[in-house]
Write a structure and sequence with these properties.
A: mainly alpha; about 70% helix; disordered N terminus; B: 434 Repressor (Amino-terminal Domain); 5 helices; 2 strands
Chain lengths: ~260, ~80
């Protein structure tokens, strides 16, 4: 195999391509408050590396990373195709409409990006490690949100500030249990996703606009459901191999 | 059609016998440590090229590293 032109792949530090792409995405998102044309910077960060790889200019990924990217693309195609089909059926058979074409386009961009990213993480890290890290991110975001929602102008007292962030604890616990008890955690995640769907009124008609519902489903329910389904459906082969090889390591992080 | 064979691998045993870490092995075959980890866990089957590289670095044959085992329902 040819040596990578961007250096050694073996380390766990992010590659410079990832750093530049992430920087472009963050700057692009921040600058959209100035002009939406800056979203082009986000596009460069999200799609630029893939375009360069397809053009044969960039060789920064190994075969597992490329396979994960191809699988993620296939999954994004399925998710977006299903969403498009459902929307066509809804619009053709009822009086449901979407007021803004911008919302529709943004919805598809969010769905494609989310599905691609989640699938890539699960394919590359494996379901257990991916679900664990997703849950830690989810819990951290919830923790920060809970603190911000109880400070400054929103100050409601020390009790609220101390108790509200505790709601993130179940996500951290599930993140820890994903590696040791993947099936149980998977079940709990799917249950949590259904609970969140009920909480956000996904099963009620006309509670929220169609696009709002879809965004909520992607951002809040998607990570839990995706992680749960991945844990429930993809743990058997790895476990079977471990048993055959007589290995005890189930943590996913041991090096030696 | 249900697969009737599964691929077992002994990469971890041979790597440990060679006294090298996942990161060192990954560096020698120019992949990420996660790729070595995924192969050892049985989550990923490497390409022929990578399998040959791994065997070469560890000083064994590919057949020693990877083994095709029959399923329980297969005829002998």
């Amino acid at each position: 195999m040819n040596r990578s032109p961007v250096g050694n792949l073996a380390g766990s530090r992010p590659q410079w391509v990832t750093l530049i792409a992430s920087g472009l995405i963050v700057i692009g998102l921040l600058m959209t408050s100035v002009s939406w044309w800056f979203l082009l910077l986000c596009a460069a960060g999200i799609f630029g590396p893939g375009l360069l790889r397809e053009a044969g200019v960039l060789h920064d990924q190994d075969e597992l990373q490329l396979l994960a990217a191809y699988r993620a693309g296939y999954h994004a195609y399925i998710a977006a195709g299903l969403m498009a089909t459902i929307l066509v059926i809804l619009f053709r058979s009822s009086k449901e409409t979407i007021d803004s074409a911008q919302e529709l386009a943004t919805l598809f961009l969010a769905l494609l990006s989310f599905t691609w990213f989640l699938s890539w993480l699960i394919s590359y890290w494996g379901p257990q490690k991916a679900a664990s890290r997703i849950l830690f991110c989810f819990g951290s975001a919830w923790f920060v949100f809970a603190i911000l929602a109880n400070t400054g102008k929103e100050w409601t007292g020390w009790t609220a500030l101390l108790l509200h962030p505790l709601l993130s604890a179940p996500f951290f616990l599930l993140g820890l249990s994903a590696k040791s008890w993947p099936r149980l955690t998977g079940l709990l995640l799917v249950g949590s996703a259904i609970g969140f769907a009920w909480f956000f009124g996904m099963f009620r008609v006309d509670h929220m606009a169609l696009v709002n519902k879809a965004f909520t489903a992607i951002l809040f329910i998607g990570p839990l459901l995706g992680g749960g389904v991945a844990l429930l459906t993809a743990t058997k082969p790895a476990k079977a191999l471990q048993e055959r090889n007589g290995e005890e390591d189930d943590t996913g992080d041991q090096d030696r | 059609m249900k697969p009737t064979h599964h691929l077992a691998n002994h990469l971890r045993q041979f790597r440990r016998a060679a006294d090298i870490t996942q990161e060192q092995l990954a560096e020698r075959v120019n992949v990420t440590r996660q790729t070595i980890f995924s192969i050892e866990k049985g989550n990923y089957t490497p390409s022929v090229a990578l399998a040959l590289q791994l065997a070469k670095v560890l000083g064994v044959r590919v057949e020693d590293l990877f083994e095709l085992r029959s399923g329980a329902n297969d005829e002998p």
